[in-house]
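Quick one: structure tokens for this chain, please?
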Amino acid sequence: MSLFGGYQNAGPGIDPNAPKKKPFFRFWELLKRNFGKILTVNLIYTLLHIPLFLAGIIYMSTNNKFTDIMTLFVLAVQFFIEGPALAGCARVQRLIVLDKAFFLGEEFKKGFTQNFGAALLYWTIDAIVIASAVAGYFVYPQYAEATGRRGIFIIYGISLAVAAILLFMNYYIMALQAATTLKPKTILKNSFMLVGLSLKECLITTAGIALMLGLMWLLLSINSLFMFLIPFFPAAFIGYLVMFVHYPVIQKFVINPYYEESGEENPEDDDPHDDDDDRLFTDRGGSEEPMKKESRKKGKTIS
């Protein structure tokens, strides 16, 4: 017996052959549908930064001969898990964008452990370039002022360009690591080539990230209580944005060509050519019509 109407009545269902929504609307639809998962993965990512918070506490609250050593040790622990943590997030966000069912904790663990070495390599490269760009911001102007050689800013501009290219490459590196079995060298090469094929997407993503960071800065400037959002939302939202914009590029230029050349069935194909004879049932969502209710007449009673 049904509480709200008869169970015989056909509902509207979801039409499996319905046209795919435009990217803008699909972005918000997937975000709404997976909002809880996005909050959860952001919380996991935040918890994996406990060593960073602990390093700050040790440095600020202690003052002895072990302070510097302990601070550096805890920061080193954070450094070693930062890249794998990003790999775990990328694996989860890829499945969200593909609209696949999955167990979040299990998939995050796989992304973290299976890609540990490669993710650490990528993060080391990022850290070196970031440190160089930050150091250049302070060193190059002082050097130019001390020596009068303005040509040094050309070198600084080149270093900033390299940092920008690496930033764009990071939109692809972890996604490729999560989706393929390519070696790190090949992933770095493919990421560089994909940047050249998708400058518009890279600029859109960068603008979206800047907008999110600007919004967070505005909220924090209004009231510091908005800090409660940081453990739950912004990092995972940025990761979701990156994956949503750039994974279709990976599918177009890397994944789909591979399956077309090999002749294998693409597991990420939205419309796989399944054999109808092998199906146990057919999804008729969106095509069923409500059943007409038949009027029942009271029969005669024999007394």
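The chain is about 70% helix and 0% strand.
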